[in-house]
Amino acid sequence: MILLAVLFLCFISSYSASVKGHTTGLSLNNDRLYKLTYSTEVFLDRGKGKQQDSVGYRISSNVDVVLLWRNPDGDDDQLIQITMKDVNVENVNEQRGAKSIFKGKNPPKIIRKKNLEALQRPVLLHLIHGKVKVILGSIFSSTLNFSSFQ
């Protein structure tokens, strides 16, 4: 479950941008579906040898992003929906071949069906000036408020 939280937070953090003291929000249009692709690699033994001999996994996913609401007063206050689809988990090291624990297994068997379903549930993000303030309906059991983390 921690892996899912880290992957999700990596995705969220890619949305905030800062320009010389002023934070700029997303430039999403209403009634438009944005399709993105994300991938991250996790090395379990980084620094203990060559990268070719590393042990780890790669998680990739297609992500749909939709702007649901924007503050009409122009305060850069908006609500977006994020849905992950086609989640894939594979070995980071292609050379392992038959030794790979991922060989012949699909994502539900690797990260468990329950975790995969949780990852693919739609998530609502409340953004103010490009910063995530609240996550709703996420893989986390309750609403998270990020205002204390800034």
TrEMBL record:
Gene that encodes the chain: MTTP
GO MF annotation terms: phospholipid transporter activity
This protein's name: Microsomal triglyceride transfer protein large subunit
Pfam family, one: Vitellogenin_N
Chemical reaction(s) catalysed: a triacyl-sn-glycerol(in) = a triacyl-sn-glycerol(out); a cholesterol ester(in) = a cholesterol ester(out); a 1,2-diacyl-sn-glycero-3-phosphocholine(in) = a 1,2-diacyl-sn-glycero-3-phosphocholine(out); a 1,2-diacyl-sn-glycero-3-phosphoethanolamine(in) = a 1,2-diacyl-sn-glycero-3-phosphoethanolamine(out)
Residues of the Vitellogenin domain: 29-135
Function: Catalyzes the transport of triglyceride, cholesteryl ester, and phospholipid between phospholipid surfaces. Required for the assembly and secretion of plasma lipoproteins that contain apolipoprotein B. May be involved in regulating cholesteryl ester biosynthesis in cells that produce lipoproteins.
Span of the signal peptide: 1-17
Alphabetically ordered keywords of this record: Signal
Gene3D superfamilies reported in the protein's UniProt record: Lipovitellin, beta-sheet shell regions, chain A
PANTHER family in UniProt: MICROSOMAL TRIGLYCERIDE TRANSFER PROTEIN LARGE SUBUNIT, MICROSOMAL TRIGLYCERIDE TRANSFER PROTEIN, LARGE SUBUNIT
InterPro entries recorded: Lipid_transp_b-sht_shell, MTTP, Vitellinogen_b-sht_N, Vitellogenin_N
Domain of life: Eukaryota
